[in-house]
Amino acid sequence: MATSYRSPVDMLSQWASTQGSEIYLRQPVRGQYKDYTWQQVYSAVQQIAGALRHLGYNAGDKIALLSKNCAEWFITDLALMYGGYISVPIYPTANSDTIRYVLEHSGAKAIFVGKLDHWPDQEPGVGGDILRLALPYETMPAQYQWLQLLNLGAPLIDAEAPTEDQVMTLIYTSGSTGKPKGAVQTFGAYSWTCNAVVRDLKADSNDRLISYLPLAHITERVAIEGSSFYAGCPVAFVESLETFVTDVQRMRPTVFFSVPRLWTLFQKNIIDKVGSFKKLQTLLKIPLLGWLVKRKIHQGLGLDKVRLLGSGSAPIPPSLVEWYHSIGLDICEAWGMTENCAYSIINHPFDASKIGTVGKPILGCKIKQSPEGELLVKSPSLMREYYKAPEATAAAFDEEGYFKTGDLCEIDSDGCVSITGRVKDNFKTAKGKYVAPVPIERKLAQDPHVELICVIGSGLPHPVALVQLAEGAALQAREEVRTSLKETLDSVNPNLESHETVDAIIVVTEPWTIENDILTPTLKIKRHVLEKAYSDRVEGVRGAEVKWEDEL
């Protein structure tokens, strides 16, 4: 698809000229919106870019950004683009070791620090020799505060426009299998992808967006931040986890994206309010009452004005998408990676018959399957390279320039793609047979008691499933949960190959979190960490049992 290149900076200038007095960013502060118009954002962008010039930083310098989502994150990002700086966003949940690694590896010369829940734990990773610039929130000590920056030096008025092949950002992967890699993305790749999102989702200035998934992740940076640049629509932010529902209800977004784990939590909260899953299903079947219940659920979530729902970042159980479909909320599953600006394949317009797939490639994206079943993609959204990693870069592309995604897939006769696992996730049991864990996990995850699941088995006689219980299940009688999990296991095992059958389900009681290094910042499970922690402990478990960790 040929799209005439226009940078986010160019789009900001356009909206400031054509709808400058319209509200663009809405930041809740102590329950009240602090609003920024397009013109105010443009002026702040020029001033922050000018302040960086005043401090001696030049176009091409790398500047890091460590903060939870907020209006000033957008303003800072745009200022870095405007000044020709290369942004290096860091996850606000990153530990000090990861922060130190990214800063050192990228060669960042300064860092913006902002909204952070645990900044005293993270500060050692920033170190004392890098200049700190603070967004206007409670954060780690910094040499310059936001208000100082807005009055430091002259605004940068005539910055050179960023070119299509100019490096815009280094996006570090979430590191599910080791050290994070820095994907080098250009203005052209980012612009192309954002335009594709706006085109496909038919977004315009009448839409309303809400930003709460980490902006350090390319999905949020394209789907929400990028959409706002190219559609010219307002964006609201979430003040805190406690105010999440209130903030969504207040903005009433028209487009809303989430990740599988949060879709699961939303479902749990809905069911808890009704009383039970069975009671809800009964109410939904009563004609008029069912319609009223659905409407009340939509309003309760703040999604009664939504026209498009999306899910990405990790596979979502088909049963969960079916459940939302039954209450009138259609979730379009999409597929993408850091390396391709997070947008290549999507089930949009939503097709209920294709639940379980991630849909078809978008216009301008080509896909193919390697002989081993790996999904390969090619589009203008692909990264230029991995920063300072020529060997990893060379290994990531085939001879035709297709990116090797590492995802195993199946492609049906309609061209719809199903992700069946990760190449590196497949393991060999003690019997010498390879097992793909993801399809097994999806089947076992149909049990409503399961929130998170990880099938391990490298070197074991048979695979074993580690399970984290859903919050409600943890309060139920152990034997009741055991019976349900055992029934699920007994229904799944007969449909697996003999070497794939699951020897046991082990209920793990320690929460899997980002803090204990079991989840990545995008809430993906680090399988290798759980393999290392549990392989020896579960070796003797046999006979399709269901056991709690303390029973081993």
UniProtKB/TrEMBL annotation:
InterPro entries in alphabetical order: AMP-bd_C_sf (IPR045851), AMP-binding_CS (IPR020845), AMP-dep_synth/lig_dom (IPR000873), ANL_N_sf (IPR042099)
A Pfam family matched in the record: AMP-binding_C_3
Domain of life: Bacteria
Keyword Nucleotide-binding listed: yes
GO cellular component, as recorded: membrane
Keywords: ATP-binding, Nucleotide-binding
Domain AMP-dependent synthetase/ligase: 15-387
Catalytic reaction equation(s): a long-chain fatty acid + ATP + CoA = a long-chain fatty acyl-CoA + AMP + diphosphate
Any GO MF annotation of the entry: ATP binding
Record's protein name: AMP-dependent synthetase
Organism: Shewanella mangrovi
Phylogenetic classification of the source organism: Bacteria, Pseudomonadati, Pseudomonadota, Gammaproteobacteria, Alteromonadales
